[in-house]
C-alpha cells in the first residue's frame, strides 16, 4: 500500500518518527505539506517564522527531488486537500507527528475525523519532544509542574529507555513515490505572497543549515556553555531554536549527540553539556504543560494571578516595542528581536521582566509580540518564558523578583559590547556609563555623542519607583497565597 506522510512542524527526512513508521508499514510513500492561508495571513505568525518555514520547505523539496520524488505542496483546507491527493495517488493511510499546541490539537481532531470518513487509516506519532507528555509523570500519575523533579524523572527514563534517533531517511528513501506520480503541486511561496516582508537577517531554514549550526556549536561552544550562555555578546548558544520549531533537526539527534559527548567529557565541559541538555529538557517540560494544562495558552497558570491589575499605556508600550525605553540592555534586546527575528535567552528574560514588572504590562501582550517577531515562536516555550518572567506561571520567578536592567546589563554585558553593537549612540560611551548613560555629566554626553533626549532617550521609568510599584501591584494579587 501507499501512505502519505503529512509534514507540519517536522520539515526533515531524517530522525522523523512518522516517516519511519510509514516506511515500515508501506510499499510507497509520498510526503505532503499543506499551506494554510488564514494562519499565514493571521495574527499568530510574523515574517521571520514564515520565511523560515518557506526556506525549509524549499530545502526539503530539493532533497526529495534529488531522490527522484517530490514534496506535494498543497494549499487550503487540510482534510479536503489531503483527501484529494490521497485519492489521486491511491494512498490508503496518512502518518503524521502530533503537535501539542491546543489549536493544532483541535484542528487535527477534525482532520483525522474527515480522513477516516474518507476511508483512510490515520496514524499519529510522538516526534517533536524527546518524551511525550504522558511519558514523564509523577508516581501518582499526575503531571509535574516543577522543573527540577521533572528533570530528575526525565533523566531516569532516559537511562532506562532511551529513544535514539530513527533512521527514517534510509528506511524511506527507496520507497519514495516518483515525482511524476505525485504530479504538479504548488510552488514554494515567498513570504511576500502572504503579506510578510522577507529579510536577509532572519535565520535561514533547512536541515543542512541545522546540521551546520550543530557542528559549529559542538566545535566551539558546548563545552563552555555553562559559563558563556548568559552573555549576549559572546553568542555562546546554539541558535537551533528555529530549527527545533520547524523540525529541520530531530530532538533525538540533539539529545543523543549531547549524551555521547557527555559520556566522554570531564569537569567544566561535562557541566556545559549537561546544562545544554537541561535546556532541551525545559523544552519538553513546557511542551507537556500545554497538554496537561491547555488553559495556560490563554490564562495564567496561577489562578490568583488573574487579579493582577495590569496597565496598558500606549507610550510605554511603544517605547518597549521599539527599543526606546532609555535602558540600553532592554533597548538593544528589542532591536535584536526586531531586526534579526531572534533574541538571546538572557535578554528575553530581561525584556519580559521589564515589560511586566517595570511597565506593569499584561504578559500576554508581550507574548503576542514575541509570537509575531521570533523565527522560533513556539507557544509552549514562549508562554512558559513569559509566565515565568511575570511570576504567573508554574515554577515561576517569585513576584518580588524585579530585574534591575542596569545591573543585568553590567553583569551580562560588562564592557557594553552587545549594547554598542545594537545602539550607535552608545558606541563612544565609556563602559562604566554604558548601561546608565543618563548618569554621564552633560559635558561628557556631548563629547561622546550621546546627549540624553537627543541621541538617546532618558529612562521612561525610574527603576526604584517602578520596582516598588510592581511589588505592590503583584503582591496584592499574589502576596497572600
Ligand atoms: P540554546 O541555549 O542553544 O538551547 C538549546 C535549545 O533548548 C533551544 O534551541 C530551545 O529549543 C531549548 N530551550 C532553551 N531554553 C529554553 C527555555 N527556557 N524554554 C524552553 N526551551 C528552551 N524558545 C523558543 O524556542 N521559542 C519561543 O517562542 C521562546 N520564547 C521565549 C520567551 C521568553 C520570555 C523567554 C524567557 C524564553 C523564551 N524561549 C523561547 C526560550 C529560549 O529563550 C530560547 O529557546 C533560546 O534563547 C533559543 O536560543 P538557542 O537555540 O541558541 O538556545
UniProtKB/TrEMBL annotation:
* Cofactor dependency: (6R)-5,10-methylene-5,6,7,8-tetrahydrofolate; FAD
EC number(s) given by UniProt:
4.1.99.3
Give a single Pfam family match.
Answer: FAD_binding_7
Q: What molecular function does GO assign, one term? A: DNA binding
UniProt keyword annotations, A-Z: Chromophore, FAD, Flavoprotein
**Which top-level enzyme class is recorded in the Swiss-Prot or TrEMBL entry?**
lyase
Family the UniProt entry places it in = Belongs to the DNA photolyase family.
Q: From which domain of life does this come?
A: Bacteria
**Lineage, broadest ranks:** Bacteria, Bacillati, Vulcanimicrobiota, Vulcanimicrobiia, Vulcanimicrobiales
Q: Which GO terms describe its biological process?
A: photoreactive repair; response to light stimulus
Could you tell me what reaction this enzyme catalyses? cyclobutadipyrimidine (in DNA) = 2 pyrimidine residues (in DNA)
- Cofactor: how and how many bound: Binds 1 FAD per subunit.
- The positions annotated for binding FAD are 225, 237-241, 276, 279-286, 376-378
Protein name, UniProt field: Deoxyribodipyrimidine photo-lyase
Does this UniProt record's set of keywords contain Metal-binding? Answer: no
Q: Does the keyword Flavoprotein apply?
A: yes
Q: Which residues form the Photolyase/cryptochrome alpha/beta domain?
A: 1-130
